[in-house]
Amino acid sequence: MFAAPAMIFVGLLIIFPLVWTIYLSLTDSHGSVRAPSQFIGFANYMEVLSDTERFWPAAGRTAYFTITALAVEVVLGMIIALLLWRPFRGEKWVRVAILLPLVATPVAVGMMWRLIFDPNMGFANQMLGWIGIPAQPWLSGQSTALPTTIFMDIWQWTPMVVLIMLAGLTSLSDEPDEAARMDGANAWQRFFFVTLPLMMPTVIVAILLRSIDALKTFDILYATKGKGGGSFHEVETLNIYAYGLSFDYNEYGLSSAVLMIFFFIIIGVMWILTRRKKGIK
Amino acid sequence: MTRRNPALAKRKPFGVRIYKNFRFAALALVVLCLLAPLAWLVASSLKTNVDIYDASKTFFFVPTLENYANVLTRNNYFVFIFNSFWVASASTVLSLILGVPAAYAMSRFTMHRSALVVLMARVIPGISLLVPWYYVFSNMKMVGGFGVLILSHMFVALPLIVYIMMSYFDSMPLELEESAQVDGLTPIGAFQRITLPLSVGGMATAGILSFIFSWNNFMFALVLSGSKTKTLPVAIFDFVSYASIDWGGLMAAATVVTIPIMIIALFTQKYIVSGMTAGATKG
């Protein structure tokens, strides 16, 4: 009874749209939302899955973006959390620094990096100039654009991983660590054989939460490269691709098919990760 | 670390000292990497467009508020600021009203399956909902109004609130309500008089986070807002034209969006951290 209003709301806003997306993916709906559409079966899916020009590269970029960002964020996040673990002076300042990127508006963050990485007047190239490295194209280069946006994601979201890891570390009991210390284990051994195994459930949670969001990254990609992920689609992930199909080209049927495939990919990743989590427990 | 075991501390004071210095240097580097870009954003917003292009004025320049004056007077920014505040607060309050009782029910009666449905909302890509919403709402001629924006932002806020409040209620002892019921309160009465007042901290956490997420949300507003209901993240794009970018104005606009949310975050640090890590360690 308490839950009824929320459930109805969620049902209307999630389940109904999901069902509609499935329906749309089986029609040739395009142009205007009021235009009549025809049922065409799985033709959209065939078209999407055989599209090696836009769909598969976008899927590849999504995987590349997610895996790279995630790997760096988890390792960096763990290191920073370990540095922060035991109390020290000035802790408050570090905590503020960690919080600010997290709450900063992603679009504004994208714009900020766009200025810093500007090839002509950006601070990034100025800094490279001081140490004698030639200027890089960063966001404007076809091969450097995606790694540059990954860097932005790392800047904004590593703090999230730090917070999760820190919560995990502080909930650990000191005893296994003390026992290992008594047995003469050094700091590295204690980390790899005591702390890390105990932290594995937290690590998986961090990976789970971050991968959900990294797969769906939209704001910084759109803010830095605009529609279609740049003129050569160099940062076009599945999310950007589906957005473009829906709202730039009004190909609702086709974009719904892309979204359903995207949706199944995400569910699949979540399923694998949660199974892995149970296995560790 | 050293205080707990003086024997070990005495044996390797050198190693400990090195670690302390290393740790200080490493943390200083982390802080620098996280804050410097933001400082850069604010500094650029105080430069003229000429100074932004001038490499000799990287660190030393005469600050000017010209960009802010431009942003706030010429571009209707007060309207966009109001829009953002209105959409974020309305969607937060409505989501709290719907979400808190729902989270309570799910926690107390362990309705894990319905909880799963709500959490699905976190996993689904927003765009797969936007297409059908756009279909329905544009047929109802609601696109461009506040109603549809608030509804769409509630979609982000509600699951977040349910998630945080569930872990909050889970950690609250049942005995309090039970004894209240023994003393003659109905279950709803017990919820209203005992549980709700005790969960103010949790609601603050959930509310602040949902406000931040709504304030920062870009994709929904990009599609569903109209010229009169544009929110700040969308309005930023006014400074990017096809041919050129008004960098000074853009940075001032970006600062205007980011500063209020950062001030809120600074004053409510504890809540934000506990909200973001809610349930993360329990698994």
TrEMBL record, chain B:
User: Which Gene Ontology terms of cellular component type are present?
Assistant: plasma membrane
ABC transmembrane type-1 domain residues are 81-268
Give the source's domain of life in one word: Bacteria
Record's Gene3D superfamilies? MetI-like
Its predominant location is: membrane
The similarity annotation says: Belongs to the binding-protein-dependent transport system permease family.
GO terms in the biological process aspect are:
transmembrane transport
Q: Where are the transmembrane segments?
A: 21-43, 77-104, 116-136, 142-166, 194-215, 247-267
What are the subcellular locations of this protein? Cell membrane
UniProt xrefs under SUPFAM superfamilies: MetI-like
Key words of the record: Cell membrane, Membrane, Transmembrane, Transmembrane helix, Transport
Membrane topology classification: Multi-pass membrane protein
Q: What is this protein called?
A: Sugar ABC transporter permease
